[in-house]
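Still learning folds. Look over my entry:

…
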Amino acid sequence: MQKKLYRSRTDRKILGVCGGLAEYFNVDSTLVRVIVVLVALLGGCGLLAYLIAALIMPEEP
């Protein structure tokens, strides 16, 4: 069975990107959210990457 990357409908705070990534990699969504926030604060490109992912990733059927 092939895994597909979707934005989560159930585990979402804003757009479901972190929840979808957490489901795809089978990790806790809080960990993914913390990593995204750290990248956004430290590197500055995290917010842009999040927005691009939200535009590209389809929503869970």
Remarks:
- The two ends are 17 Å apart (CA to CA).
